[in-house]
Amino acid sequence: xxxxxxxxxxxxxxxILSQPLPVAVSPSAAAEAIFQGYLYLxxxxxxxxVLYDATTVLSWAKLPVTPQLDAAQQKTLAAAxxxxxxxxxxxxxxxxxxxxxxxxxxxxxxxxxxxxxxxxSSLPTREAMVGLIWEFPLPPMPEEILIQWxxxxxxxxxxxxxxxxxxxxxxxxxAIGVPLLKWSVKGKLPMPGPLAAVPRIxxxxxxxxxxxxxxxxxxxxxxxxxxxxGRHRLPGGAVAFFGAxxxxxxxxxxxxxxxxxxxxxAPPVKxxxxxxxxLSPLLRNVYRAFDYxxxxxxxxxxxxxxxGELLRQLxxxxxxxxxxxxxxxxxVTITEFSAEVMAVKDNPAGAGFVxxxxxxxxxxxxHWGHAHTRVNRYTAQVTVSPVKAEWKIIKLEVRxxxxx
Length: 404
Hints:
Elements: H1 13-18, E1 35-42, E2 45-53, H2 54-60, E3 68-69, H3 71-85, E4 89-92, E5 97-98, E6 100-110, E7 113-115, E8 123-124, E9 128-137, E10 144-149, E11 158-165, E12 168-175, E13 181-184, E14 207-210, H4 211-229, H5 237-251, E15 257-260, H6 272-288, H7 295-302, H8 310-321, E16 333-346, E17 353-367, E18 370-387, E19 390-403
Parallel strand pairs: 1-11
Antiparallel strand pairs: 1-2, 2-9, 3-8, 4-5, 4-10, 6-7, 6-9, 10-13, 11-12, 14-15, 16-17, 17-18, 18-19
Helix pairs in contact: 4-5
């Protein structure tokens, strides 16, 4: 059996010493602190939003700073900030006041670049932010916007604010030593436009009732019957009596004329072009109603285009369609609208007409520093009928709704 040969490992010290030392892996850098405000000046409303990075809020709330935030930790974090933040923001146009606080929510991403994530899923703390939202009424054509902010935490002394109005924006800054920030409007906000004009239904000429002639004729008839029943003779004879009777009726005709309204007379709508002129502004004004924020104002404006049970249905459905999913307070403002009528026929249930039509509504809304665009297209059968001398939508059946 052959013997085992001994082997030795030869180490060259010079080669070992010439190799570079291993690079030490440094711990991950701390997440960048985030403290950013946004003010959106929308039709009839101001919406103020503020973003904090989650790490800063965790430290401020004395909660554990962990690499991941599970659903329970997210809920605790949002609740801790919301419990203290309600009166941190006050806005106004002549004096500041407390608005409606919509609460706190956990946001993924960075300011101006938020990302979707599934509710209930864990989120890396480095990628998490906490957002606050307030709403305030905005009267038409204010001279200035007043901002009061007191939510400085963890040594923060300045809140950068991006102010959005229409398609423009400006940067302003609130500071801990400045109790009130003023932003001059100077005609920057667009004047609210009127509702789209809907063709009115012309009323028929009123009936002309000659009251004086009617009284004269009635008196003559009563006198004639009295004479006949009493077997008396007509003064001057029958010819003279009837001549005087007719002459009096003619002479009194212009006096005491009463006009009796006959009501509207809806013209027949036979072509798609005629129907489109009526239907397009009606649908456009349905969306314009939601430029208002109070339910009563929305209903009052909707009632100018819609009648009957459809009013409540359209209120709920349109409100849902214009609200971003899961984002309270963020309502899309429609900026472009077009409608096309493909077919029209008489309303079998009464006056008016029935159309097969399609319309497209494009709108935008700003949220957390970036804009969301919403384009919806609907195909529907719409019934339009005259109601108190005005065209109104009385029935709407959506056959297809698509988001483009």
